[in-house]
From TrEMBL:
GO BP annotations listed: carbohydrate metabolic process; fructose 6-phosphate metabolic process; protein N-linked glycosylation; UDP-N-acetylglucosamine metabolic process
Enzyme Commission (EC) number: 2.6.1.16
Organism: Serpentinicella alkaliphila
Main location: cytoplasm
Protein name as annotated: Glutamine--fructose-6-phosphate aminotransferase [isomerizing]
Domain SIS: 45-184, 217-358
GO cellular component: cytosol
Coiled-coil ranges per UniProt: 190-220
Protein encoded by which gene: glmS
GO MF annotation terms: carbohydrate derivative binding; glutamine-fructose-6-phosphate transaminase (isomerizing) activity
Known function: Catalyzes the first step in hexosamine metabolism, converting fructose-6P into glucosamine-6P using glutamine as a nitrogen source.
Catalytic residues identified in the record: K363
Length: 368
C-alpha cells in the first residue's frame, strides 16, 4: 500500500496533488485546435438540444456539489432551466420528467444505489440520460444513453477530491458545448472561458503549493467544535463541498450556508473564536460578502477568507486570507475548492484521524 501512495502519507493528499493532471486528462482530449468541444460520442445535436426544455442533475455527496455548479453553468451558458437534486430525495417528489428532459447522473463510482435508482426512474419517464462518471463499465455508465468519462484515474481515499474537480470540468464542457450549439453564448465568451480553463493545470499546481500556509492555519484551527462555511452564488456551492470534506475526515461538525441566510438562524451560533470560512471570489457579490464577514467578526468569529489574488480589501476584513490565482468568476470553483480540501486534510491529520478511511463512511454506497 505504501508503494501505491507514491511517497505520500495518505491517498487523499496524493490525490489532491494529482488534480492538475486529472484536470488536463479530462479537458484536453475533448478540445480541438479551435476550441471545438468533442463530447466523446454523446449525441447532443442542435436538434436534440432544441427539444430539451429542462435539465435535471441528480447525484449524492460530493458529486451532488458538482451538480450544483453544473446547474449554474448550464443555466448561464445554455439558457436551459436546470434542477439539481440529491438522488435519495429525487423520487419522493414525483419529479416532473418527460421525454424533453435531459437527465444527468453524476457519480464517481458509477455504482451509487440512490443515483442508479433515480436514473431508472427518469429513464422510465422517457428522459434522455447522460452519465458523468469516473469508472468505465460501471452500472450507471451501462444504463445511461450517453456517458462522459472523467479521467481522474482511480480514487482511493473515501473523501473525493480529484473526482470532484474533474466533474466540474465535465459540467463546464457540457454547458459550453450546449451553449455554443444553441447560440446562447457568444463565440468570444466561449473562447475566453476555454482559454482560461486551459491554464488550470498550471493554476491548480500553483495552488497545491500553498499547502504550507494552509497547514499552518490547520495547526492553529484544528480544535474547533463547529466550523461554518459561507458564500454566495457558486461560492456557496464550493462552501458545501469544503464543509463536507471537513466533516467527513475530521469529525468536526460543520455547516455551509448561503451567506445571505446567516441572519435567518445560523448567526445565532457564532461566538468568540468560532471558525468561519468565507468564500469571496465573486466580484459582483463581493460587497455583500464583506458585510457578512463583518457581521460574523462583530460576534467574535475567526474568519479565514478565500479570495482572488490582488484583492487587498479582504485583508482588512478577515483574520487570514487564502488567495487563489486570478481567474474568471464563472470558473472559480475548480480553484477555490483546493485550499478547502487541503484545510480539511491538515485539520484531520492534526487531529490524528484516519484520513483515508473515515469511520462510518464508504467510498461507494451500494445500498439505498
Ligand atoms: C460516498 C462517498 C462520497 C461520494 C458519494 C457519492 O458517500 O464517500 O465521497 O461523493 O458516495 O458517490 P459517487 O460514486 O456516486 O460519486
Amino acid at each position: 500500500e505504501s508503494a501505491e501512495k507514491g511517497g505520500y502519507e495518505h491517498f487523499m493528499i496524493k490525490e489532491i496533488h494529482e488534480q492538475p493532471k486529472a484536470i488536463k486528462d479530462t479537458l484536453s482530449p475533448r478540445l480541438g485546435v479551435n476550441n471545438e468541444i468533442e463530447l466523446d460520442n454523446i449525441k447532443l445535436s442542435k436538434e436534440d438540444l432544441e427539444k430539451i426544455n429542462k435539465v435535471v442533475i441528480v447525484a449524492c455527496g460530493t458529486a451532488y456539489h458538482a451538480g450544483l455548479v453544473g446547474r449554474y453553468a448550464i443555466e448561464k451558458f445554455a439558457k436551459i432551466p436546470v434542477e439539481t437534486d440529491v438522488a435519495s430525495e429525487f423520487r419522493y417528489r414525483d419529479p416532473f420528467v418527460d421525454d424533453k428532459t435531459l437527465f444527468i447522473a453524476v457519480s464517481q463510482s458509477g455504482e451509487t444505489a440512490d443515483t442508479l435508482a433515480a436514473l431508472r426512474e427518469a429513464k422510465g419517464k422517457g428522459a434522455r440520460v447522460l452519465a458523468v462518471t469516473n469508472v468505465v463499465g460501471s452500472r450507471i455508465s451501462r444504463e445511461a444513453d450517453d456517458v462522459f468519462y472523467t479521467w481522474a484515474g482511480p480514487e482511493i481515499a473515501v473523501a473525493s477530491t480529484k473526482a470532484y474537480t474533474t466533474q466540474l470540468v465535465a459540467m463546464y464542457l457540457i454547458a459550453l458545448n450546449m451553449g455554443i450549439k444553441k447560440g446562447t453564448i457568444s463565440k468570444e465568451k466561449y473562447n475566453e472561458i476555454l482559454e482560461e480553463l486551459k491554464t488550470y493545470q498550471q493554476k491548480v499546481e500553483k495552488l497545491v503549493e500553498t499547502k504550507e500556509q494552509i497547514q499552518e492555519l490547520a495547526n492553529r484551527q484544528f480544535n474547533n467544535q463547529n466550523v461554518f462555511y459561507i458564500g454566495r452564488g457558486i461560492d456557496d456551492h464550493v462552501g458545501k463541498e469544503g464543509s463536507l470534506k471537513l466533516k467527513e475526515i475530521s469529525y468536526i461538525h460543520s455547516e455551509a450556508i448561503a451567506a445571505g441566510e446567516l441572519k435567518h438562524g445560523t448567526i445565532a451560533l457564532i461566538e468568540q473564536g468560532t471558525l468561519v470560512i468565507a468564500l469571496a471570489t465573486q466580484e459582483h457579490l463581493f460587497d455583500k460578502m464583506l458585510s457578512n464577514i463583518k457581521e460574523v467578526k462583530a460576534r467574535g468569529a475567526y474568519v479565514i477568507a478565500v479570495a482572488k489574488e490582488g484583492n487587498e480589501e479582504i485583508e482588512e476584513a478577515a483574520d487570514a486570507v487564502i488567495y487563489i490565482p486570478n481567474t474568471l468568476d464563472e470558473l472559480t470553483p475548480i480553484l477555490s475548492v483546493i485550499p478547502l480540501q487541503l484545510l480539511a486534510y491538515y485539520i484531520a491529520v492534526t487531529r490524528g484521524c484516519d484520513v483515508d478511511k473515515p469511520k462510518n463512511l464508504a467510498k461507494s454506497v451500494t445500498v439505498e
